[in-house]
Amino acid sequence: MEREISIEDIRAAAARIEGAVVDTPMSKSRTLSEIVGADIWLKFENLQFTAAYKERGALNKLRQLSPEECKRGVIAASAGNHAQAVAYHGARLGIPVTIVMPAPTPTIKVEQTEGHGAHCVLEGKVFDDAYAHAQALADEKGYVFVHPFDDPDVIAGQGTVGLEMLRDVPDLDVLVVPIGGGGLMSGIAIAAKAINPDIELVGVEAEMFPAMKCIIEGKGTITGGDTLAEGIAVKEPGKITRAIIADLVDRIELVPEAAIEHAVALLVGIEKTVVEGAGAAGLALLLDQPDAFKGKKVGTVLCGGNIDPHLLSNVLVRELVRAGRIARLKIAAEDRPGALAAITAKFHEHRVNILETNHHRIFNALPAKDTLIEVECEARDAAAIDRLVDALEECGFNVERADRLSAAEGH
């Protein structure tokens, strides 16, 4: 039976890792507070050296190894933030680190992990394969296995996030924390309930991966899908963590993909900070269910900032589409000289920028003498494009606007 984790364990972890991880800012967002209708405080764990809170638990585990264990080395299974954390702090402490990743892991993640001095082994098609191989290597080579979330020392390390949040803002009413395997929420829950038994704890999972919620509520579930929040896309949460969360956490809520995208984009636009999908899940819930938090003092953790730049670019452009600032118009016109000039004149008149145009003469249902002109355009606000569409239609053009993405839609 695993030992019980107490706030004293978390305080000991805080002393153990002090100075080796960043004591990250806890700041109130005035703009997000106005949007949600609550006092919103953000814990910027994306500002850790490896851009995620995972360093805390990994370092707390590594710092307690015996000299013999340090000499043998450690092993972990991860293709994400846990791999970076173990590799980075293992190198700092002179501990040999092996990381097992699924074979399809993007090369950039392998290179980043090797850049911290770890030896990477690619095994299997999915995480479960890599995890099983890592455990087999641990048994064979005598490595210490560093679990990403289901380990008392790791949980205690993650709990230091909660200590810092309540140190900086002692009168928080609610903590909203993303849940994947459950290590972060477990540690924070232990710390928070010991400091303030009346504080409300709300966990957040992506709709595609409701594993912890379904386990605790005794429901069967099918998890899976291409979620933006891959950091919390866990099919099998921890055994230790599920018991802690069932005991201490008030409820677990699910957030749709579009809400996660919206949160990532708002954090870039408002807070000027880059946060991955999993790290933005807490804010996504506040934006998706503002009535549940209205008037309260709420803290949430921006738990990671490792997002692919191309993916981030897609998210930001999709947010402009949701806001109505980028649109795709399908304009039916006579296929004659001057037709396009008449259309573009209206774009100029309404100060709407044309990003791309395409003529479709064959694959459309218009008469043979007509053409379909598809225009992707951008304006400073949605109203400008609405006025442009009205002006084009007044000139006799038939305009169809491509479906807008709504804040409630997923992919």
Automatic annotation (TrEMBL):
GO molecular function: L-serine ammonia-lyase activity; pyridoxal phosphate binding; threonine deaminase activity
Enzyme class: lyase
Matches recorded under Pfam families: ACT, PALP
Catalytic activities: L-serine = pyruvate + NH4(+)
EC numbers for this chain: 4.3.1.19
All residue ranges annotated as the ACT domain in the record: 328-407
Key words of the record: Lyase, Pyridoxal phosphate
Cofactor annotation: pyridoxal 5'-phosphate
GO biological process annotation, one example: L-threonine catabolic process
SUPFAM superfamilies per the UniProt record, alphabetical: ACT-like (SSF55021), Tryptophan synthase beta subunit-like PLP-dependent enzymes (SSF53686)
Family: Belongs to the serine/threonine dehydratase family.
Annotated protein name in UniProt: Threonine ammonia-lyase
Organism: Sphingomicrobium sediminis
Upper lineage: Bacteria, Pseudomonadati, Pseudomonadota, Alphaproteobacteria, Sphingomonadales
